[in-house]
Amino acid sequence: MALEKITSITGRGVCVPGNDIDTDRIIPARFMKCVTFDGLGEFLFFDVRKNADGTDKPHPLNEARFKGATVLLSGANFGCGSSREHAPQAIQKYGFRAIVAENFAEIFFGNCTTLGIPCATAAREDIAKIAAAIEKNPALEIVVDVAKQEIRFGGQSVKAEVRAAARDALVNGRWDAIGELLDGMTAMKATAAKLPYLAA
Amino acid sequence: MPKSLFEKVWDAHSVRTLANGQTQLLIGTHLIHEVTSPQAFGMLRDLGLKVAMPHRTFATVDHIVPTDQLVEPYHDPLAQAMMTELRKNCAEFGITFFDRATGKQGIVHIVGPEQGITQPGTTIACGDSHTSTHGAFGAIAFGIGTTQIRDVLATQSMALGKLKVRRINVTGRLRPGVYAKDVILHIIRVLGVNGGTGFAYEYGGEVFDRFTMEERMTVCNMSIEGGARAGYVNPDETTFAYLKGRPYSPKGAEWDAAVARWKAVASDPGCHYDDVVTIPAAEIAPTVTWGINPGQGISITESIPDPATAKAVDEKASIEEALAYMKLRPGAPIKGTKIDVAFLGSCTNGRLSDFQEVAKYMQGRKVAPGVKAIAVPGSQIVALQCEKLGLDKILAEAGFEWRAAGCSMCLAMNPDKLIGDQLCASSSNRNFKGRQGSPTGRTILMSPLMVAAAAVTGAVADAREVFHVNN
Ligand code: SF4
């Protein structure tokens, strides 16, 4: 399976500020009643974006000037909580291609990488700088450079970090592990044969 | 070289190193449920793949099942569709399904241990973050996403980076009225909701040595709430006694061989830990949350934090956000906060011992007028055990609705939901915004007995006072 080599993502950004944004907030559980991931994008951040009567609440994703953004910025511990892949799926289906945050919850980070969504960590001050630049000019082009581990915007550049294993997987087009795992089936069976609880 | 249990299990299950440096890790046991698996089966079909080890894959239905409707079709067509899909997938790929008709259905993290499927020294994966529960048996258990479910279905393995291990010792003895739930809420409060990032937590010390399996499960269950990818307790005689005679436990001569292996898999004395934390049990009080993540907890005798006294800007902002959502007053005692709903259940506290403890004190007591109280056993087997002991009657007489097994109001994917900004005293594990089914619903996490105390008084209360606990 040839996968896209994701070395950098270029696009407009939007900042959804806050720490500990959990997966229940990213996609409320009631939208998980589905047997496919199709159509999840429209429910992204639903409860913080919409009032009970369906009208919009003030939220960056509801602002026309941020429409079409592909880089999502946020705070610390982004994606904490449940392991639901519905969260990164909703983010991806909404149109985001990269996430920049102070740091990420473990399972969420892994789920994103497997979907080919780079999760870059950056210092709070730097995220604030990018957010300020977007605020001034929502059309600003942001480059999340996975390979070089930096984020470039409006002539500035800040350091970003994409963990080694994820970076390697993304830039070399092996973020979806299934091909490699299938290649290892013989080795898997040999390992299983050595374990008494599996040999039975 | 002495090794930790984590290292031993990791090494024994390492298939090979992948190009990006991660490990292809063999997953001995794969548990699936209706919410996160259908898309994985879809992906499997798209790729034309089969399930590698159907006999090592076990399914149950828990999240969407109504707890007050047993006959199908369910009122909610989407819930019925998920049920039907799981049934179809299990039949097609030859997977054991603990469907409702088997009498063994329940929350996946309760079913695995109950059936003896969860065993020491094994690796377990499930598309559910609370898979860490199974670590109570000395298994290394991971919550995974749907694409990884596809990986495990297709290859009985997944790609993962090795974790560091933090040993958490809880020393001494717990005070009366302090439960396993308080221990983990306290640990998360101390180490933070992302303090565990990159770690597996190994729990030990006198408190864990003395704990029953059910108590160990309660703690391991919420490891993920502390940011840890896995949590475990070394297997010991308590573990073996629990497993003996369960349907999937080894039998006869195999049992002795298994116990010998399980003993050997425990962490060696003097093994290396990347970090060690010691928490004196005497410092732990009945703990309740006041905010919107499980780390925002205080002891029942403390006051709600005041953003004005926060040390950092960040902390101030998060306290303000939490209090605005929770509609709580800074500086006020948490005790006395009026509640609307009391929920007993979930994979954290929906086991026999939880209902036993509550029933012991609820005899002759009544749920306060205006409080909706529901008790939801974690599995059909738990339900039956409780009913045999008459616990359902005690709870029902006290004013709790006794329901059928499932996740229920823990995340409200079924009809059990908070309405508006109702406040729920809950024995579950997450107090995120909107978690219990209403976008403005509020959750206070606590131990089952504290839920009972809140139900009886209609407000957050100290169970030790309400029930004169001095065991
Ligand atoms: S009881 Fe709650 S936390 Fe446990 S599996 Fe069900 S929904 Fe998840």
Please, could you describe this protein's structure?
- The complex is a heterodimer of chains A (200) and B (471).
- Chain A is α/β, with parallel strands linked by helices.
- Chain A has one domain (8-175): Aconitase, domain 4 (Alpha-Beta Barrel).
- Chain A contains nine helices and eight strands.
- The mean pLDDT of chain A is 95.
- By secondary structure, chain B is an alpha/beta fold.
- In chain B, 34% of the residues lie in helices and 17% in strands.
- Chain B is built from 17 helices and 19 strands.
- Chain B has a five-stranded parallel sheet with strand order 5-4-3-6-7, sandwiched between helices. In chain B, strands 17-16-15-18-19 form a five-stranded parallel sheet. In chain B, strands 11-10-9-12 form a four-stranded parallel sheet.
- The mean pLDDT of chain B is 97.
- The complex binds iron/sulfur cluster.
Give the biggest beta sheet of chain B: 5 strands, parallel
Indicate the mean pLDDT of chain B.
97
Share of helix of chain A, binned? 25-40%
CATH superfamily of chain A: Aconitase, domain 4
- Secondary-structure element series of chain A: EEHHEHEHEHEEEHHHH
CATH class group of chain A: Alpha Beta
Layout of helices and strands, plus pairs?
The complex is a heterodimer of chains A (about 200) and B (about 475).
Chain A: E1 8-11, E2 13-15, H1 23-26, H2 46-49, E3 71-73, H3 86-94, E4 98-101, H4 106-114, E5 119-121, H5 124-136, E6 142-145, E7 150-153, E8 156-159, H6 164-171, H7 178-183, H8 185-193, H9 196-199
Parallel strand pairs in A: 2-3, 3-4, 4-5
Antiparallel strand pairs in A: 1-6, 6-7, 7-8
Chain B: H1 5-13, E1 14-17, E2 23-26, E3 29-32, H2 38-46, E4 57-60, H3 77-93, E5 96-98, H4 108-115, E6 123-126, E7 140-143, H5 146-155, E8 157-160, E9 164-171, H6 180-191, E10 199-204, H7 206-210, H8 213-221, E11 230-233, H9 237-243, H10 253-265, E12 275-280, E13 287-289, E14 297-299, H11 313-326, E15 341-344, H12 346-349, H13 352-362, E16 372-375, H14 380-388, H15 391-398, E17 400-402, E18 423-426, E19 442-445, H16 448-457, H17 463-466
Helix pairs in contact in B: 2-5, 6-8, 13-15
Bound molecules: iron/sulfur cluster.
Iron/sulfur cluster (SF4) binds near residues 128, 130, 346, 428 and 429 of chain B.
